[in-house]
Amino acid sequence: MFTWLRQQKNTLVTRWALRGCSSVGTAPKSWGIPLIQNAGQLIIGDDFSLWSHLSRSQLEVGADGVLQIGNHVFINTGTTISAKVEVIIGDRVQIANGVSILDSDFHGLEDRHSPSPAEPIRIEDDVWIATRAIVLKGVTIGRGAVVAAGAVVTCNVAPYTLVGGVPARLIRPLQKPVYQPLSL
Fold this sequence. Notes:
Layout: H1 2-17, E1 23-24, E2 29-31, E3 35-38, E4 41-44, E5 49-51, E6 58-61, E7 66-69, E8 74-75, E9 80-83, E10 86-89, E11 94-95, E12 100-102, E13 121-123, E14 128-129, E15 134-135, E16 140-141, E17 146-147, E18 152-153, E19 161-164, E20 169-173
Parallel strand pairs: 1-4, 2-5, 3-6, 4-7, 5-8, 6-9, 7-10, 8-11, 9-12, 10-13, 11-14, 12-15, 13-16, 14-17, 15-18, 17-19
Antiparallel strand pairs: 19-20
């Protein structure tokens, strides 16, 4: 009985926390209250988990922006995702705590009063982005890739590779799984 009540409370709190989203799939889960700012389209798939218990996770979408998050995605506490133009996150992606994913610099390098152009970010299926990594504009992270803790990703990451460092560079290729990942 108490487990059922706890699950219902968590479902209600999660739905309330994600109320600013354009659409949310089935069975979302949250721990804590994230900061959601949606002036564009924020689309979340099924079985989504968003933790904000130690520090707030932030999902921000600009007026013409799109943030699309796939199925079975986990985003840990203190993560910031900002989509001025477009951020697409595939299925079964794991994003550790303190990660920043930004498709814009928010201002120019020399003229800090003028905006710099935003460029789309694509994170393909089965990617893991480790603690405090930063993914910058215009990047595609290939399927099954792993971004090491503290890495700053400034250019595309090939599928099934491990990258790390500042700026991120290839550490080693990863073995493609022999099995097909479960489609939950």
